[in-house]
Structure to design on (438 residues):
């Protein structure tokens, strides 16, 4: 049984890795297009596009914002919803469900958040620039996993699991940072309404409600709208809603196997139809199989599987297209040596690998935990640099941190250059290591 569970976890991880790496490629293409467009003769059309106003009206409620606003506050809530689903899956039955196995990558993720923030603050001790300390704390899981996937079996599978677990823990940390440090003035009435909708979602979970429509209506139409109006960033609603999605099955594995065997036997006993369409009896058996398949799967995993392609190949590339278009300054050197750009760039490029590697070495020296078999210090250093690819989450926090366009553009330059350098260095370091045995 333990072997079967290990095989299933490995298969699920491999599928997750494939989605992330492919999504990283699409994300990279979108970022390149945004940069090229923003520095082309058509740069005015790039900026004008995202400034279009979009209005949503439902009864007496009117929500109005630019297209850029709806992408960052609306569509990215869906991204954070999927992040929440991934986090809950890992906590319930994945790499974060076994505290001993999760301790080292989670601790490394924490070290990889604190060191970049400290380095950023060393360059920006006060003023508005001080608010950008959260920008270099994040790791872009799609990009990082995508670069590592290019190395194939040159890196051990354990290192891929380590990086993925670290990045997921990093996502949770980024969500908490946004929730506690990057919120505007709070409307208590709307916040209480949002909490009431959250209670309804939680109650539906406890009562065994499994239809996605229930969680969509109360989570999006209810909680997301209330959080948007409350001043707490609406993407937090996506994570909270995800944690209310049921993560248990209605039918255990032995019962599912037994029922499917009976259904197959019943289908085999039916008279062959001999036509392109099924007979009523055949269709009835197939429908019973579909019902049992639904009962044997968790709503959380079904939703994650259904939404992941939409987020990876739709929401995230669109976000990159709307946010990565940085016009190269007339004086690039001057822009890159600004305190904001230096703080962000140094935090991602040096803070990430330093924080991760020092944390791992400290825990190893204390005898608390050790990385998996086949993972060397060279692997950890290369992975630490890959974790310095901030991009999506860093760009997102940048939008929350700064109101000043100049600081925002300087931070974007730091994010893009540091992410490119970190990914390149990490790739080259891992590529020169001996090929992994498995």
């Amino acid at each position: 049984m333990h072997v079967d569970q290990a095989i299933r976890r490995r298969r699920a991880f491999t599928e997750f890795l494939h989605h992330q790496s492919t999504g990283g490629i699409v994300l990279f293409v979108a970022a390149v297009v945004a940069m090229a467009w923003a520095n082309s003769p058509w740069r005015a059309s790039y900026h004008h596009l995202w400034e279009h106003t979009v209005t949503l009206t439902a009864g007496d409620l009117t929500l109005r914002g630019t297209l850029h606003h709806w992408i960052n506050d609306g569509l990215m809530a869906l991204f954070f919803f999927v992040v929440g689903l991934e986090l809950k899956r890992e906590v319930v039955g994945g790499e974060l469900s076994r505290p001993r196995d999760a301790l080292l990558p989670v601790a490394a993720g924490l070290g990889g958040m604190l060191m970049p923030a400290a380095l950023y603050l060393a360059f920006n001790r006060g003023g508005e620039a001080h608010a950008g300390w959260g920008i270099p704390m994040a790791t872009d899981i799609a990009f990082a996993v995508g670069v590592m996937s290019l190395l194939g079996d040159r890196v051990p599978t354990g290192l891929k699991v380590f990086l993925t677990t670290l990045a997921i823990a990093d996502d949770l940390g980024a969500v908490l940072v946004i929730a506690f440090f990057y919120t505007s003035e709070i409307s208590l009435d709307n916040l209480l309404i949002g909490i009431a909708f959250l209670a309804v979602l939680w109650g539906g979970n406890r009562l065994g409600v499994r239809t996605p429509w229930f969680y969509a209506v109360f989570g999006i139409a209810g909680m997301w709208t209330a959080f948007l109006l409350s001043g707490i960033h609406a993407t937090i609603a996506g994570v909270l809603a995800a944690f209310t999605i049921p993560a248990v099955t209605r039918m255990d594995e032995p019962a599912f196997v037994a029922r499917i065997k009976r259904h197959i036997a019943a289908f085999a006993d039916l008279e062959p139809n001999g036509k392109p369409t099924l007979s009523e009896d055949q269709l009835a058996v197939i429908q019973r199989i579909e019902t049992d398949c639904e009962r044997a799967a968790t709503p959380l995993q079904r939703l994650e599987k259904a939404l992941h392609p939409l987020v990876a190949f739709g929401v995230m590339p669109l976000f990159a297209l709307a946010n990565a278009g940085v016009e190269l300054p007339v004086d690039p050197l001057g822009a890159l040596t600004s305190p904001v750009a230096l703080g962000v760039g140094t935090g991602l490029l040096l803070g990430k690998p330093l924080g991760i590697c020092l944390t791992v070495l400290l825990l190893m020296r204390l005898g608390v935990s050790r990385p998996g078999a086949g993972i060397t210090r060279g692997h950890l250093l290369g992975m630490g640099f890959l974790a310095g690819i901030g991009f999506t989450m860093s760009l997102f926090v940048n939008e929350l941190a700064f109101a000043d366009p100049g600081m925002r553009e300087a931070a974007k330059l730091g994010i893009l250059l540091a992410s490119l350098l970190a990914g390149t260095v990490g790739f080259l370091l891992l590529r020169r290591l001996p090929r992994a045995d498995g």
